[in-house]
Amino acid sequence: MIGILNKLQDFMDALRKLDFLAPLALRAYLVPVFWVAGNNKWNPFAEGGTLNPAEGLGGLASWFGDGLGLPLPLLMAFLAWAAEYFGSILLALGLAVRWIAIPMMITMVVAATTVHWDNGWQAVHDAKSPHASANVEGAAERLERAKSILRQHGNYRWLTEEGSFVVSNNGIEWAATYFAMLLALWGLGGGKYFSVDYWLKRRFRDKPDRE
Asked: How confident is the model over 44-57, as pLDDT tens digits?
């Protein structure tokens, strides 16, 4: 039995040659997430856009200052945008992955603690979750009432054929998930072969006799 387990472990160890797939998968998942988030905050190169951050990030800065009470709201908005916008580009290239993961993680911490914290864990209300919010029953009641109204006065089958209705809780779940993925990239780096970091390391940092 021990011999069989050892052979299985040897097989699993041999698969470590594919360990570059893990950071590649993390990067591939996070790139569109942060690219969309950054462009939603401000796309300075959009048609009719402006390169003036005071205009492009004005609404977000107002919310940061007036809604969240953050200091230096325009600067905070710019830093959040820059971390997401340029972070997604660097993750796609696999360039400076461990370095860019740091400000991106900070952005997630700020988002979790200032925007989402009071809403608890869940991004979407779910009474079956062990981390259900205190007001999950009220959310479920409102959801059922909304569904009832739509069934009576709307084409409910058409409205739900692409997906079910949910009630957003806007908790820290997604920010915490992205933080954990970025933390893994901070530790792992961009991975082999499919990252600029890997080839730069081989060219400029590895010793000649080292792979």
From this structure: 888 776 788 888 99
